[in-house]
Design goal:
The chain is an alpha/beta fold. It has 7 helices and 6 strands; from the N terminus they run E-H-E-H-E-H-H-H-H-E-H-E-E. It has one domain: Rossmann fold.
């Protein structure tokens, strides 16, 4: 399977979603300067036929409350993550303010907790459904365990907390391109015609499987990227429908 870069974005307005891993906020892979470079590159993919004011519109999604799936005290997590989120956001705003080619309103910033409220359904109920699906689906279990093995760090265990972390992360990242979560952005202003999830790294097998099986029977035909993932490091777009997970 060969995957390639996007040549040009669709001519109509769209959003690029940038999920931010809290453990990588301050390192090179997800710091402000790195994202400025990513966005500068993505801007080149806007068709010339669009408005001269058209720029990549992006939403940074900070995953702070996803890490509540742990035994650590919430006050400790808050004291650790809040400064990181604030520094990342304000630092990026300062960076783009120095470049006249960027539009401040084209970027917005959401916490993971806000996504629960922006979802049109009951996220908790659907997360419980996904957990029940996982318990019965041996392939789902297999791919998630393979993902864990590939990224396992010293001291990490695939315990209940880690499993809940993965499943919540995958469900939210599935719902976003399916158009089920309202995404505030002053520049696009709810007129997005496509949504692309972009992250520095390949998609995980369990996440691909969730899209392929489409357990919740969701379809967002106006979004050509509803079952895709853009790897910001490799500059490749992965079409989940084309992936053979046994060979991936």
């Amino acid at each position: 399977m060969e995957f390639y870069d996007i040549n040009k974005f669709p001519a109509k307005e769209g959003l690029v979603l940038f999920p931010i891993s809290m453990g990588k906020l301050s390192n090179k892979s997800q710091n402000q300067k790195t994202y400025l470079n990513y966005i500068t590159f993505l801007n080149k993919k806007i068709p010339k036929s669009t408005s001269p004011k058209a720029k990549v519109s992006g939403i940074f999604i900070y995953t702070e409350s996803l890490y509540f799936n742990s035994d650590k005290k919430s006050k400790d997590l808050k004291s650790r993550f809040l400064p990181l989120i604030n520094n990342h956001k304000t630092g990026f705003i300062r960076l783009i303010s120095k470049h006249q080619s960027f539009i401040q309103d084209a970027f917005s910033y959401l916490s993971w907790t806000q996504l629960y409220l922006q979802y049109e359904g009951d996220f908790g109920t659907n997360l419980s459904k996904l957990k029940q699906i996982y318990k019965k689906d041996e392939l789902f279990q297999k791919y998630l365990k393979e993902d864990f093995k590939s990224m396992k760090k010293k001291g990490m265990l695939l315990d209940e907390n880690q499993l809940n972390f993965f499943l919540e992360e995958h469900l939210m990242a599935y719902l976003l391109p399916k158009g089920k979560i309202q995404l505030p952005n002053n520049f696009i202003n709810n007129h997005e015609k496509w949504i692309l999830v972009a992250y520095p790294g390949k998609p995980l097998k369990a996440h691909i499987y969730l899209h392929q099986k489409n357990f919740f029977k969701l379809d967002n035909p106006k979004n050509k990227y509803q079952d895709s993932w853009y790897d910001l490091e490799e500059k490749k777009v992965y079409d989940f429908k084309r992936i053979n997970l046994e060979e991936f």
